Amino acid sequence: MARAFAVPSVITIVALLAAACGGTPARPAPAPVAPSIAIVGATLWDGTGRAPVPNAVTVVRHDRILCAGAAGECLIPAGARIIAAQGRYLIPGLIDSHVHLLFITRGSAGEELGLDLRDLLAQGITTVRDMGTDPAGLLSRVRSLQAAPRVHAMQLVAGRRFFFNGFRGTATARGTIYRQPPALAMQQLGWKPVQFDSDGDADTLVAEARQAGAMGLKLYAQLDSGSVRRLTEAAHRAGMPVWGHAWVQPASVMEQVLAGQNGVVHAAGLAGELFTVEERATLVRDGDLQAATAAVATVGAALDPRVLAALDSMARRGTMLEPTLDAVRHSVATYDAKLRHKASVQEEYVRSASRFGMEVTRQAIRRGVRISAGSDHVSYGLAGERATLFGELRLLVDSAGLSPTAALLAATRDAARAIGGQPGGQVGTIQAGRYADLVLLAKNPLEDIANLEYVDLVMVGGKLWRPGQLRSGIAMR
Ligand SMILES: [Zn+2]
């Protein structure tokens, strides 16, 4: 009799939990309902802003957090699997709000994507936002993976010149040079930027982006302020966030902020504020733009009233900033490692962008701009040359003046706000009802952000993983 009752109730629970997930077409729920898991004895930093709770109890059932708090606040259900965590630190799963995951080389994305996602999970990263590759292609590949962070994807959008500039030749002393338009180089990697003309229909573009699985727009380049405004308004009508490069030629950061964009990426891009309206409209080719940026982006220029006005307006309106300092650091390190090489416009640009971007980030933090710790990580190429969230957080603390607590918020609660919408509301803090995305650390990250390296366990949607097993490819039970 008891058995006869047990079966329908299990099915009911699975159905209710599936309904609570908001209908995401994720992996099928496992057949038996997992028993509760209780993580007992850790110091809990829940990412909500409350002080760390020593000797805490955190209870997880299925893929959700049931309860998290002091021992008396949270009861351990009978039959729960206990994870003894005395002396450890429990934090929300980390979020990297800026990655590029899909790179098609020689016709396939190969194993790189799956291996990279396992490695990100091993670092305690349980959610990532792809800032522009190919939403439909990426999401269909990720769906078949066993061990991966949650993946959200943004749709890249650029203006007409991004798709056609270059076909028109440039006259030089050595003859006419033709370059391929930047959009072509992207398409060769399997990325799918979409074109928006200044007289285009923004609502149709947004509907198509949603159809492709994108959860928001990433404005990339060659968009004027009218286009930025119309795209932003259309996306917001559809409940989708809009992020963009700090500046999108010709629209400036100030124009992007006033258009209502949710966030801008790359602190060094605030150099766009230092150009005149005419320069912004005509600096189109990469080489010209880099040379002009290298000339204006000095450390002192980060204090230029036009840059500070853009930052103040971001702080006032809640427009977020992803500085992407670690990606720039990697580019500088590449030049530092070359013993003998010819100086180039590109190198000059990278070095000035690095110094300028760091100072802009310091000013942004001082002026109350909310930071999201997206790293601009790519899942392609040599592992040692890829930017990481860990590297970004270390730079934000060691060089840009964030406290370890503020840096952790930038990779949890605030990164979840950066993602926004329904998916952002499910992650980023340890609270009843949210996804059970957790990281158990052997050392205290609030004392030293570098202690994020000591990941003991990672949980994503209630499933436990040990970093060593993720990296060796052996599944954990
Ligand atoms: Zn990027």
Protein model, in words:
- This protein is an alpha/beta fold.
- It has two domains: 34-92 and 429-472, Roll (Urease, subunit C, domain 1); 94-424, TIM Barrel, CATH 3.20.20.140.
- The protein contains 18 helices and 19 strands.
- The strands form three sheets. Strands 6, 7, 8, 11, 12, 13, 14, 15 and 16 form a nine-stranded parallel sheet that branches. Strands 1, 2, 3, 4, 5, 17, 18 and 19 form an eight-stranded mixed sheet that branches.
- The longest helix is centred in the C-terminal third of the chain and has 22 residues, at 345-366.
- It is globular and about 80 Å long.
- Mean pLDDT is 89; it is low at 1-24.
- Zinc ion is lined by residues 98, 100, 131, 376.
Features:
single chain, 477 residues, alpha/beta, Urease, subunit C, domain 1, TIM Barrel, 9-stranded parallel beta sheet, 8-stranded mixed beta sheet, 18 helices, 19 strands, globular, disordered N terminus, binds zinc ion
